[in-house]
Every structure is written in structure tokens, then in C-alpha cells.
Amino acid sequence: MAKTFPEHFLWGGSTAANQIEGAWDEGGRGPATSDFARLITKEIRDTEGTFDVHVPHNAASREMVEDMKLHPENWELPKRRGIDFYHTYKEDIRLFAEMGFKVFRMSISWSRIFPNGDDAQPNEEGLKFYDAVFDELHRYGIEPLVTLSHFDTPLHLAETYNGFASRHTTDAFVRYAETVMRRYKGKVKYWLTFNEINNVLSNPFTSSGVIMDGAPEPNSCNPYLGNWQLKFQAVHNQFIASALAVKKLHEIDPEAKMGNMLCRLENYAESSRPEDQLQVMFEDHFNWFFTDVQANGEYPYYMQRFFDENDIHIEMGPDDEKILKEGAVDFITISYYMTYIMRYKGSPVPQPTGRLVSDIKNPHLPKSEWGWTIDPIGFRVTLNRIYDRYHKPIFISENGLGAVDQFDENGRIQDDYRIDYMRAHVEQMREAIADGVDVFGYAWWGPIDLVSSGTSEMTKRYGMIYVDQDDYGNGSKKRSKKKSFYYYKKLIASNGADLENDVTFDE
Predict the structure, then answer these.
(1) What is the CATH number of the domain that holds 482?
(2) pLDDT in tens, 40-70
(3) pTM across the whole model
(4) Active site residue 21
């Protein structure tokens, strides 16, 4: 076993603008799709029923968004307030630095730079805000790793052009990407194009700005609603946007690198039946597809049958294949939270499940309070499989545990469950590196409590820094350290060599 991680390994944390910044209508920022994701608490889920962690709604997305615009007082929309990072970034970055962060993965809010997504001129106040954030990070020697689009397409592009269903949005994205890459040349050397790009199939509104007629509410997560044609056309247009952004970055700053971002779904067969193994292959193909295109620069052979069977015809421009080939990403990033069990669906042609939480529970694994399996060895498996497939450097852009935190009698959060999760996953990441996998960084998802992506809750906490704010925005917003804060600080200081949970609040 390797005793330490590679020298200069990038330890840190990961967030998204739409989950932390707040100030949704300050500083010239325009509305984005994320501003229309409502709070879905456990009480709401229990009352209304669920699909995964999302709640079906009878209204079409367009109708619901319109009602949110006209009557915001009738809705609880937590992503509009985030955790107020827009005003507290200096304090928060100081705490990250105290933990020893080497990297901070964050996103730029596109509509903070171009309020409508396609304005004639960028918003200087928005550009200055990120200048200030990057300067503060560099003050502490923290490298920013910046996602260009993290589930917050400008609303104007969604309502007027149906987001990435239109090449207009592709062109607008490339102009936005070029603007920020030129502005922050020398300040940002690691970029990502689209967060968890595969989520466009299950969550097209926030992922790509696509409003689907008859779909449930905006932050729904149902892969079966709407049509495959529209979703895959939007995916293709995002592929082109990504490839063009890669090419632009290499022209603007040859020293900088651009990565992709995949929500990695590692799958196990329910049994040794060959049919179950076949279903795993279908599921893997559907997951790998996105990174195959972005890393290899071409559509993989195995998708053609699915396209044919489902009457999907991708409209391509005359130079699209050349653009994809020339715009392959430099490195791979993934989110990894859990593994899945697959059972044959009864068809010899690809029929993916498309669910973000497995219907079939693994009896060999514990689960989080949200039903997510905890599988550190699966982490090692998936890292090896990614490197086998692409032979490109890997950065872990998200890994973490959402839990309900409780204060003890001394007013402290003894989150050993979070420490146990981190320790086990870091240990298996170290094993993968010993296997020969090129992993150059690890960012814990939500190092500071933030608004949940799927349900907009604060109750589901990932952070090592506690934020005094509840699901409805009540609280002082005061930051305080959990036990895991001290653990991660020690782990980083040892470059991953010391994984023992022997820290106290006195350190």
C-alpha cells in the first residue's frame, strides 16, 4: 500500500455557485434555472410522494416557472439565498485555508457575467466579484478549479431558446466561456465545462435549460418524462459547446487545462445470470457515453443501436465531428457517492434505468439517511475502470456524505460518521493510486454546509463547517467547526498518510 499521496496532490473541497452564493438579484446578476428549484423537505416528500428525492407536480415546468415569477411569496426557493457566500467569501475561504486546502472547486454563475446569457456586453460587477474570490484564494495558496456551468443556465436562454436545445445557447456559452477565460488568465488554470453532464437526461431544466412540455416541476429527476430526441439534441449541443471551450482555452492560455465532469454510476449485477451482466453493460454504456465523447472526441459505436431503436436523429453541423475531435478534454473529473445494483429489464436492446438512486438495495452495504449506499471499495473500482478506459489524469470533483447533524451537550457536532466515510474513501483512493491510477486531486463535496442540489434543503448537510441556517433561511448564518474540520486538517497536513480518527476539538 502506498503510504502517502503524490507530492503536490490537490486536497480541497467542492461547491456550486447556485448552492452557496445567494444574492440572486444583486450585482447585476440575472435569473437562472436554479432560482426556480423549490424546497422539498422530508415532510413534503412524505405528504406528496416521491420520485427518488424529487416530487412530481401536475403543472408543466413553464407554467410553474411563470407562477414562481409572478408569485414568489407562494414558494420557498432556497437557492436564491444559498448560504450568502457572495458576502461571506472572505471568512469562508479563511476557514478553507485553515483546513489546509490546496484547491477549491467552485463555479461561476453564468448569469452573473451575462445576465441574460447572451447580452452584448458582460456585467463588470459580476466579473469583479470573481476577481475578488480568486484573489482571496491565491492569497492563501489555494488553486481555484472552476466549473463554467453548474446547473444554472440563464433563464432567458431557457425561456426564449429552450436552452441547449438550440445552437444559439451553444454560441452564447462559448462567448461566455471565452470572456471569463480571458479575464481570469493567470488566475485559473483548471477549468471544467459542464457539471455532471449526464444529468441532462434526468434533469434537463437545471442541467441544460430545456423546458419540457408536460414535465413535472423544474427540479424533477424523472428520465422517462419528455422525449429522448430533445434531450439528446441538447446533449449534443453541449458536447459542441464543451469542445469549442476546450479549443478556446488552449488558444487563450496554453498552460491551462480543461476537464469534463461525470456523475459516475458504478453498477453491479444483482446475480451471476448473464442477463443481469448484460444490463450492467447497458447501464455502463449509458454512463460512459458522455465521457467517451468528451475524452475521445467522437460518438461511441454502442449508442447507434439505442438511437435507431428510439428514433433519435442528432442534428449535426457540417464541422461538428471535427470540433469534437479537436476539443477533447485534458483530464477527467467525476462525482462519486454510491454504487448501484442492476437487474435485467427483459430486452436484448439497451434499456437503461436512468435512476439516480438504485431501486434494488445492496444487502452488503450500509446506507446514508437518504438511502445512498456507502461503498468505498466501489470507489477504487471506478477509479481503475476510468483510468483503464481513458488513460487521462483524474480529479475527484465530488465525494461526500449528506447527513443530519446534531449538537451534543457541549454545543459541538461530533460527526464521526462523516469522518468514517471520508477515511474509508480516501483509503481506497490511495489504493487506486497504488494500483497505478493517475489521480491528482480530491475535493470533498460541500466542505461548508450548503443548499442541497436535489431538494434545496439545508437539513442534508455535507460540510465540515456548520452554517447556522435552516431549510427556510432562519438562523444567524454563523460558521462553526465540526469535528471533521479538524480531521480533514490533519489528513491534509499528512498528505493522506495519517487517516486515524484521533482528533479533538482542542486542536
Answers:
(1) 3.20.20.80
(2) 888 887 776 544 433 333 334 688 888 999 9
(3) 0.94
(4) no
